[in-house]
Each structure stands twice: as C-alpha cells, then as structure tokens.
TrEMBL record:
Residues 13-376 form the Glycosyl hydrolase family 13 catalytic domain. Belongs to the glycosyl hydrolase 13 family. This is Alpha-glucosidase. One of its GO terms (biological process) is oligosaccharide catabolic process. The keyword Hydrolase applies. CDD domains: AmyAc_OligoGlu_TS. PANTHER family: ALPHA-AMYLASE FAMILY MEMBER, NEUTRAL AND BASIC AMINO ACID TRANSPORT PROTEIN RBAT. Keywords: Glycosidase, Hydrolase. It comes from Nonomuraea jabiensis. It comes from the Bacteria. InterPro entries: GH, GH13_cat_dom, O16G_dom_2. One of its GO terms (molecular function) is alpha-amylase activity. The lineage of its organism: Bacteria, Bacillati, Actinomycetota, Actinomycetes, Streptosporangiales.
Amino acid sequence: MDIPWWRDAIVYEIYVRSFADASGDGVGDLAGVRERLPYLRRLGVDAIWLTPFYPSPMADGGYDVANYRGVDPLFGTLADFESLVEQAHEHGLRVLVDIVPNHSSSEHPWFQAALRGERRDRYIFRDTTNNWQSTFGGPAWTKVADGQYYLHLFAPGQPDFNWRNPEVHAEFLDILRFWLDRGVDGFRIDVAMGLYKAEGLPDVGDQSFKSVSPVWGQPEVHNVYRDWRRLLNGYPGERMAVGEVWTDSSEDLALYVRPDELHQSFNFAWLQAPWSPTAFKKVIDDTLASVPFATWVLSNHDVVRHRTRYGTADPGTGLARARAALLTMLALPGSAYLYQGEELGLPEVTDLPDEARQDPVFFQSKGKLPGRDGCRVPIPWTVDPPSHGFSPGGVEPWLPQPATFAELSVEKQEGDAGSTLEFYRQALACRRDLVGTIPYTLEWLDSPEGVLFFSRGPLTCAINCGLQPVHLPEHDTVLLSSGPLKGDLLPPDTAAWLMTS
Ligand code: NOJ
C-alpha cells in the first residue's frame, strides 16, 4: 500500500499573528512566514498549518471570518498567500489552511443582510432562546434590534451558520475549491463537530464537549465531510483534512476518521492527559485501538503550553517533562502536530497585564479566566528587545514578551547542543530516518512502576514519569535522549530512544 504523506507527517501550527512580522506593524503576517520557511525546513517539519488570515474584525483572533476568499490587510494580500504556498512547496513543505465553517463574523455580508431582516435562514435566529451557553462564557444568544435572537456558540461576533440550509453547504464547497485551486494541501476544520445542532434546539444539562449532546456531534455532520472528502479526492496530490473534534472517547473520535470522511482528527486526549504513565498508556491504547490514522498533539493556540502544564513549582521540571513527552509522542505511530514556540521550550506567559489581553474568553468571563493570550505571545527570534526579532525596527509586538524570552530566543539556542531547539531538530531528523523503516504498530514491554517502555520493531522508547532513576531496557545503542542519561540509568522526567538489531 502506498503510504499517504499525512499518515506520519509532522505538522507545525503557525498562529500567524504571533509567528513573524515582516510589515513592521507589530502583528505577524504571511510575508513573515515566508521569510522563515528556511527555519521550518531546517527544523524538519513536513507541513505547516496556518491559522485564519482572512478578512476579519478580529473578535476572536481571526476565527471570525468576514470574507472566506481573501486575506486581511493585517496579514498581507492574496498574492502574498500565493507566493507563500509556492515557496513552501519549493522548500518541500505542504500547506494546510484553517477553515471556519461553524460560524462567520458578524461582519460577514450574509449576517449583515440578516441583521437588515433579509435571509435569516442562513443563520440560527429564533424568537425565544434556550439555555445554551457560549463556550467563552455568557449566554449563546444575542438579541438584535427587532427583538429576535441569534445563536453564537462562541463570541457574539461569531454567529453560527444554519447548516440545515443547503446554501451554506454549497458555499463551503465553493470556498474549499477556492483554496484548493490556489494549491493548498489540506484544511484544518475549526469546531468540526459543531456544525449541526439538534432539531428544536432543546435545553442542555451539561454543555461540555460531550459526544451525545444537542449542541455537538449531530450525525448529520458526517454527510458534510463525505462531500468534502469527495471534493478533496477529485484534486491531485493527496489533499487532506484534519478535524478539530472534541469528544469524550476515542470511539467517537474515530467516527470522523473514516475512508470516506476526514483523513485525521486532533487527538486532544493526549494533550489533556496529566503527567502520568497510566494516563499516557490509556490514551495510547485507546487511540490505537479505535482511530485508524492516529494523531498526537501537546500544545496549540487554545491551551496552556505543555511546558507550563507539566511544570511544578520548578520550571526546569516542566521543560524536562515537555522534552520527554515530545520524544515519546514522536515515537508513536501516526502524525504529530507541533505548536510554534514549543521547539524553543516557551512557557505560558502567565503575567500579561489585563490591558494587554485580547482574548474574548477574558472579556466574556469578566476577567475570571485569563484566556488564551498567554500561549499566543509572539515568538522570540533574537536576543534583543523590544520585539526579540519578531518585528523589524523598534516596533512593540501586539502582546508584550517577557524578559525571559531573550534566553529562549532562536538566536540564543541555535548551535547550542543542549538547547531545546537543537533537541527538536535532532529528534525530527532521527524520526525522519526511522519512520519508513519501523512498523506502524506498537508493543508494550514490561517496565517498572512509573515508567513506560514500548517498541516499534528495532526502536524502543522509554519514558520515566516516576521519582527514581530506572535501568534502561535491553538495547544496543542509545539514539537520543531528552536529557542526560546517567550511564545505564534513565533519570526521572526523561525519555530515550534505543535501538536493538
Ligand atoms: C477553535 C479555535 O482553535 C479557537 O481558537 C477558536 O476560538 C474557536 N474554535 C472558535 O472558532
């Protein structure tokens, strides 16, 4: 069987606003991404995923799209996008773009027409509300001038589409074609389990991302992805789609990953697992038992960075664990998604001043929740402030970077063998050499308490989540470790790749 490129791909998420600013306005842009393609190539990833760069009033960092077929001037032009795709391909990098089908911006012409009382059938308008809450806090309904309410599962500036209207369906097929015709290799589908709501919009008891709920995961959504798959199959070059699907079991996740539906789905169970060998093992077993094409992810632009999640009072422990988790993830069968900055070991920035915060989660929770700005702080490329090379000249970036970013900058880490950046480069290069030579399956080996050993043919991965050093399992050579080994001992918070002939 020919192995599709995405099965084992390493995809690097670029949160465009925070990656690199070429224009000098303090906000990242497409030209900034283009300038950094050699860095990404050198890092050793296979593909990039660009978060939304479409025209948007930025009520939710661009996940509120006002025009699905354009580029916001903040991020550049359509010509910039086209040259980015072309140059990415020249560097051997595939390009995925984010598609946001659950909701548009309230500035979208369809919603503007709806506000004027025209064609409300493309959104969800009602005379009375139900008890649904916005994921960001507060009611999921906002009243318009004539007294009707519209549904928004996220910010009020993100009205939900009515997917029971075939016009919405046709519009999105056309949007996908627009980007496929511009050479994109695939799509990341935002809120992929949210498009349909249960008929009659019944009240809910618990609105968390449950597989069985009137809000999420309605069976009708699968027909959408069947149509999208047919469209993707009609294009040359193995175009693909990965869904942002939150479910409470791997079996439910697998419903989206089928030969006639999505190619992949994010596996948030891995990211939600605490630092625990039993939790890790359970997620790995459940995933491999149900999901035909597995994916793994530790961080993204919506969650606390994993260095901080795993960190205890000692930030060094967080980094050691983050590196060990990465090595373990890269040894698993399937594809892995990295989030910009994790290769530098960036922590969550927890002390942003309230005035700097921009995430609607902060505002809709009336400041009770910090929101997601702390994982979106612009990347430090160089040592020197004011922007650590993020913006040219003396421009301040859109979110302030802490002074500690100097030490974590690319400039500081490049060429330093012990740095997290060089560790990522090495791990990705090793994985690239290994991936075609080892089986897609995984076998558990006996291991002491607090520790996991698994093998894939000649490769064994060992991770020590316990408190004591343990003996490495049988091996011929040590390929790589996430931290220093002590002779034959694997210290706590450390992982290693071992080879046996
Ligand atoms: C998921 C995206 O990743 C997140 O950033 C966004 O706020 C919501 N979907 C709503 O579009």
